[in-house]
Specification:
alpha/beta, 4-stranded antiparallel sheet, 27 helices, 63% helix, rod-shaped
Length: 763
């Protein structure tokens, strides 16, 4: 038969299997099932271990309670200049405001204050069983509870407290977790109270600063008033009783009125300056360049001119009120001044509104309100400054008139003027202070606590059922993952494809021998073709015999060497059964145990090891003594004999070549069982003396690299006798699944049909 026909015959069954496996997705699923089946024990062990750990954790985990409260936040309302030029989509502005407040609540300052309040609550209550998070968990302690430091407790609060906005609403939910339900509720309520107080102080910060400033000024002016009154009293006692005339009283009254307004302007300027400095400080942190721009814009000549005119008109109005003109003339002048003031203030308002609108259009949304406040306060401050300067000029004119009075009258008038001025200034400051105090107390925050956190009745976690379920899933996942990784790094020969994918000829495969009953005992026999010839393994050896015969194109090859890469791969079993298969085909066959290291052939046939092969070589036994007949017709065997100290020298000798020629003259087929190829050189030596060499590899045992190295050794040289690899112990069923059932049942049915036919012929 041509060699191409032999290759087609040799690979036809494998190709049929491949075509069958490649159809659909069965192959992929089956491969994964095979990996699971091959690693079933470690997968079960890993899965059970993780499941047991999860069960133990679920049963021993500490109960965690969760408490929560809800805050409602009202967004501050600005004027029309605060509104965006284009309408915003959705509720972006409100969401941004809430997001800023959430970030504020997570500030370290608030957390530290909450930590202080929690520690104070524990010290006040003194009940250890109601607290848990505030204590340090030290493994090597003396058994006494140790309260955490402020920093550590603050870090714990950051982890245990969750703050989030309810989607689409102006509500913020504060929740906390703790092993103690009381502590969880206390932590949430404390956090809400601290934030509400912080928010209130933040909303009051401007009016509080004004109130504190007025309080200082009020105390200072009260002391100055007492000093002025004492000076006036001392002067009168030293100078005798002196009374001012009507002209002096009128002049002093006018001066004190103007000074009172001057002092009021100074106070208003100070308050405006304080506000302006605070606004500019905030703006400078956000946009330094914009602060200078606003200052220059508010100080434009046209605005300053309008402010000067307003200040001069108001001063003239005050001067007219202080004059001795008739009431009808005063009313006419006051009316003219009021009309002029209304017109000037209207022009100033329109101009400032124009500047503000243009400024707001070019200002980012986040600092729009702040820039509007700065600009308005700049205009107000400049107006107060202009009014202050004009009043100061009028007072200077009155002081010149006061200097023309008699000397004693001047001294008394100045003391009287100083006392009256300080008295009016103090009354003004007192009024302003009370207004600021009322304004501060009436300023409320924009936070409303809708509900106090209540003591949770049931723990929020752990969810024990879920933990066990997750443990089961993770266990199966890690177990199967281990199987996949193990399979990926497993470099052993597993299937015929592993051999052919490396361009190595595959002769056949021998299935894994299943146990069956022989003489009443259930065992795994080694002489399969004699004891269970109709088994799948027996048929496989017959197929191997057929393929070896087709390699013998000329019909002259008689000696076949059977070797393996490493020990324990089944070369002796293959040698015995291949020899038995040839014997069953009416070929005079002999098997020679040339494994002079660890011979096994004699044990398979229940024969003694010696006299044998080596005894014949040293002359201790004759040829007839070493040749033994087996129970199988046409099959003889020669055992190894006495183990020699130099096996390689015996095998690599002329006597060995002569011995093989002698066997070839008497037998049709000589099967030689040799030692493993990689461990010793015996098999490599014998491969040069035989007609054909077969390498046996064991599925799920032989390393692929070791197999390739063995093939390389057998193919070395021009006279290589290597014809292919035999895959032994191949688990056909687990690899090819349903096709194996089909092939096996087909073979078995065929055998049964043959038996039935024989019975029919006999009958």
């Amino acid at each position: 038969m041509p060699k191409n026909d032999f290759n087609y015959l040799k690979n036809s069954e494998l190709n049929m299997l491949r075509e069958y496996i490649d159809e659909g997705e069965t192959h992929t699923i089956h491969d994964y099932i095979k990996i699971l089946r091959d690693n079933l024990i470690p997968v079960i062990a890993i899965s059970l271990t993780i499941l047991i750990i999860s069960i133990v954790y679920a049963l021993t985990a500490t109960d965690i309670y969760k408490a929560s409260t809800v805050l409602k936040l009202s967004q501050p309302q600005g004027n029309i200049l605060d509104a965006p030029l284009l309408p915003e989509f959705g509720n972006f502005g409100a969401d941004r405001f809430i997001a800023n407040e959430v970030e504020t609540m997570q500030n370290i300052t608030i957390r530290e204050q909450v930590a202080r309040d929690i520690i104070d609550s524990f010290k006040t209550l003194g009940q250890r069983d109601k607290f848990s998070l505030i204590f340090s968990s030290k493994y090597f302690s003396d058994g006494k509870d140790t309260i955490k430091s402020l920093y550590d407790l603050e870090q714990t609060i950051e982890k245990k407290v969750n703050i989030e906005q309810k989607r689409g609403l102006d509500f913020i939910e504060i929740s906390a977790e703790s092993p103690s339900p009381f502590e969880a509720a206390l932590l949430v309520n404390t956090y809400a109270k601290v934030y509400k107080k912080f928010n209130l102080l933040d909303n009051r910060k401007q009016v509080t600063k004004v109130r504190k400033f007025l309080a200082i000024q009020r105390e200072e002016k009260l002391r100055e008033l007492h000093d002025a009154e004492n000076k006036l009293k001392v002067y009168k006692l030293n100078s005798g009783s002196i009374e001012l005339d009507e002209q002096a009283k009128s002049l002093i009254g006018s001066i004190t009125d103007l000074e009172s307004k001057l002092n009021a302007s100074a106070v208003e300027m100070s308050i405006s300056r304080e506000k302006l400095d605070q606004y500019k400080g905030e703006l400078k942190r956000k946009d330094p360049s914009l602060s200078k721009y606003l200052e220059n814009k508010a100080a434009e000549p046209y605005l300053l001119k309008l402010q000067d005119l307003i200040a001069e008109t108001e001063a003239q109005k005050d001067f007219a009120l202080a004059s001795k003109s008739s009431n009808s003339r005063k009313k006419g002048l006051i009316k003219q001044y009021n009309e002029k003031l209304a017109d000037l203030k209207d022009k100033l308002k329109r101009k400032t509104d124009e500047y503000q609108v243009s400024l707001m259009a070019a200002t980012p949304e986040e600092i729009r309100t702040l820039t509007q406040q700065i600009f308005a306060e700049e205009v107000n401050y400049n107006s107060l400054k202009a009014s202050y300067n004009r009043l100061k000029g009028f007072i200077t004119q009155y002081e010149h008139r006061l200097d023309k009075l008699p000397e004693k009258t001047i001294d008394l008038a100045r003391l009287q003027r100083e006392r009256m001025g300080l008295e009016k200034l103090y009354l003004l400051l007192e009024e302003k202070y009370q207004e600021a105090l009322i304004n501060e107390q009436s300023t409320t925050g924009n936070v409303l606590i809708l509900n106090q956190a209540r003591l949770p009745r049931l723990p929020a976690k752990p969810n024990r059922k879920l933990i066990i379920l997750i443990g089961l899933v993770l266990g199966l996942g890690f177990g199967y993952g281990f199987a996949l990784v193990r399979n990926y790094f497993d470099k052993r020969v597993k299937s015929p494809e592993d051999i052919e994918n490396r361009n190595i000829d595959l002769l056949a495969w021998i299935p894994k021998v299943e146990k069956f009953t022989v003489n009443g005992n259930k065992s795994g026999p080694e002489f399969i073709v004699a004891q269970k010839a109709d088994s799948v393994a027996g048929e496989a050896f017959k197929a191997l015999r057929t393929r070896i015969r087709y390699t013998n194109v000329g019909g002259e090859e008689k000696t076949i060497l059977i070797t393996s890469s490493a020990p324990g791969e089944g070369k002796s079993l293959v040698s015995v059964n291949l020899a038995g298969s040839f014997a069953q085909a009416n070929k005079r066959t002999i098997i020679v145990d040339a494994d002079l290291r660890k011979p096994r052939v004699h044990s398979i046939f229940n024969e003694k090891r010696y006299p044998g092969f080596t005894d014949y070589f040293v002359g201790k036994a004759s040829y007839e003594e070493i040749v033994r007949h087996s129970d199988l017709e046409n099959l003889d065997l020669i055992t190894a004999g006495t183990i020699p100290p130099n096996p390689s020298e015996i095998l690599d000798s002329r006597g060995m070549r002569s011995f093989i020629k002698k066997l070839e003259e008497e037998y049709d087929i000589i099967i030689i069982d040799s030692p493993p190829l990689v461990t010793v050189t015996d098999a490599e030596i014998l491969s040069r003396m035989v007609d054909e060499t077969i390498l046996v590899v064991s599925a799920n045992q032989t390393d692929i690299e070791l197999m390739e190295k063995s093939v390389g050794l057998l193919k070395r040289g021009d006279e290589s006798t290597f014809i292919g690899v035999l895959l032994n112990n191949f688990d056909f069923k687990s690899t090819y699944g349903s096709y194996y059932k089909y092939a096996y049942s087909y073979s078995r049915n065929g055998d049964n049909k043959k038996k039935n036919k024989k019975k029919m012929f006999k009958s």
